[in-house]
Amino acid sequence: MLTTADFLNITKWSGILTLLCAAITVLALILKWGVRFRFVGITGFMCVLTGGLFALSLAPLTHTPVPGAVRYSLTYDTGGTQAVIAVKPDITETQLEATLRQAANNLFSYGRLGQNQTQLNIRARTIIHPTEGVSEPLLLGEAKPSLSSREDDQLSIKIYHDNFAKLPHPNA
């Protein structure tokens, strides 16, 4: 994964290329080349690209893995206080707890709309098939991290043990 220092280095080279494109554009406009307006577009695009790379060099891109977490997919997110993740039905309770911690870390954003609430509600669900042709969503647990702090020592995780009993067991 690229670090902020890598993005700063890439920004430097992109800026040099942007200045080179600008110089060629000025030369093309003075000499009235047929491709002068293409160079105007290229230079504009390079300015936007360099600005975006510079912005990425300012904001750290961090991903903190949680040991024991398994892959999940985000199935519902209001951008506010509700989110649902989907996990595979062969997950264990310890893996689910780690996965909920990982989801709480990944879904944290200062831009979430709290609507007078202080916590994000992340639910974990899976799909089981009790009979042929029937699919049933099953809630396995939920986490309630803070909307205002990434380092939440008050993270509340609840595992629904009775729903884990409904999961199909590989030995059965």
What would your notes on this structure say?
- By secondary structure, the protein is α+β, with helices and mostly antiparallel strands.
- The chain has 2 domains: 4-58; 73-164, no CATH class.
- Helices cover 41% and strands 18% of the residues.
- The chain has 4 helices and 5 strands; from the N terminus they run ααββαβββα.
- It has helices at residues 4-31, 36-58, 93-107, 161-164; strands at 73-77, 82-86, 121-128, 136-144, 156-159.
- A 5-stranded mixed beta sheet has the order 1-2-3-4-5.
- β3 and β4 form a beta hairpin.
- It is elongated, with a radius of gyration of 25 Å.
- 17% of the residues are buried.
According to DSSP, the number of beta strands is 5
| Uncertain parts | none
Radius of gyration, CA atoms, in whole angstroms: 25 Å
Describe the global form. elongated
**Helical proportion?**
40-55%
Largest sheet: 5 strands, mixed
Biggest sheet strand line-up: 1-2-3-4-5
Mean pLDDT: 88
The count of helical stretches stands at 4
Could you tell me how far the N terminus lies from the C terminus, measured between alpha carbons in angstroms? 42 Å
The string of secondary-structure elements, in order, is HHEEHEEEH
Overall structural class, as computed from helix and strand content, comes to alpha+beta
Strand content: 15-25%
Number of domains: 2
Protein name: Protein of function (DUF2518)
Transmembrane segments: 12-31, 38-61
Keywords: Membrane, Transmembrane, Transmembrane helix
Pfam family, one: DUF2518
